[in-house]
Amino acid sequence: MEHIELNGKTVLVTGSAGFIGSNLVLSLLKTISSIHIVGLDNLNDYYDVNIKNWRLKEIEKEASLHPSSSYTFIKGDLSDAQLINTIFKDHEPDIVVNLAAQAGVRYSITNPDAYISSNLIGFSNILEACRHSYDNNKKGVEHLVYASSSSVYGTNKKVPYSTDDQVDNPVSLYAATKKSNELMAHAYAKLYNIPCTGLRFFTVYGPAGRPDMAYFGFTNKLLKGETIKIFNYGNCKRDFTFVDDIVEGVQRIMQGAPERKNGEDGLPLPPYSIYNIGNSHPENLLDFVSILQEELIRAKVLPEDYDFEAHKELVAMQPGDVPITYADTSALERDFHFKPKTTLREGLRAFAKWYKDFYE
After folding, report:
1. Diameter over CA atoms, the chain
2. CATH number assigned to the domain comprising residue 144
3. Interval 73-130: pLDDT, tens
4. CA distance 311 to 29
5. Among 10, 132, 135, 163, which residue has the fewest nearby CB atoms (within 10 Å)?
6. Which residues contact 25 (CB under 8 A, 6 or more apart)?
7. 330 found inside a domain
8. How confident is the model over 92-105, as pLDDT tens digits?
9. Do residues 25 and 13 lie in contact, with contact meaning Cβ atoms separated by under 8 Å?
10. Residue 233 belongs to some domain of the structure
11. Contacts (Cβ under 8 Å, ≥6 apart) of 313
12. Is 334 a member of any domain?
């Protein structure tokens, strides 16, 4: 593994107004003494743009505290090849973190085009720009880190999920596009010697998260007095991972690029790796919802006497969903000495407090 010093580097973060992207940008500004960040986001209305704008304001506030660093935000689309090429020409990023994607399993069933445009064409534009960053003997991109997803494991029966498992059974188009990203990155790593690392994220949650995620949607509905549906009769298990843990993992991985080396035939071996980032501790959805309710009452989002039982309904599984996600994170621990550590209660407490402040 080749160590990359982030100090003084230029980093392109796509999806920088997104949940993970914005938190990564904040963390880089806070922890690296001099860094130049270029953020790209199309600010689409897949969910409430007010949350994206709030995240961008938080980044601007943080950036103003660090005069030796810089932050440039570009509003634009990953699928716009000309724009991507211009960004690479103007800013010459040393590290690229591709977090921009059309997210969500259920949305991919009704809106497949958004996934093809962002997750396939958009990622292809990033790979091409990385490839050409080495033209004319330039140093070019030192490391491409990109978001994959735990959804690639599909209906795998073996748990915990290991990056050594075969993942050829996606149950949603979203999962299929993420698996495709891994295959595309592997091909580019092999052909053009681009150091690439894919990250399979497991159910990320936390303050200022995505409103289409269960915990956020549950909160909105409970507040309105509506009934929440708990799928698979509450027997779903998810490897819930707090966003700060995800970001720390990403930041460490950015600094460890797969090594460029030649095989016995003298040709480059693909500098390519994949890691799970999850809690490796799946929680039952019913337990998750109970803790969420307690923390919403504690934060005074819900009243003390809220009748939770009257507002929940246990229902069958949804198409495209899987009963359990469970990460084997041993490779992450071995290579980066990192393991997520935030408990569900700590994480949901932080979310409930943010929700109270943001909406009230």
Report:
1. 71
2. 3.40.50.720
3. 999 999 999 999 999 999 999 999 999 987 777 777 888 888 898 899 999 999 999 9
4. 42
5. 135
6. 13, 16, 37, 39, 59, 71
7. yes
8. 999 999 999 877 77
9. yes
10. no
11. 227, 228, 229, 230
12. yes
Residue 221 falls inside a structural domain: no
Q: Which residues are catalytic?
A: 174
Number of domain units in the chain: 1
Residues 6+ apart with CB under 8 A from 152: 167, 170, 175, 178, 179, 182, 200
What residues make up the domain containing 113? Answer: 2-205+240-279+325-341
Over residues 4-34, the pLDDT tens digits come to 999 999 999 999 999 999 999 999 999 999 9
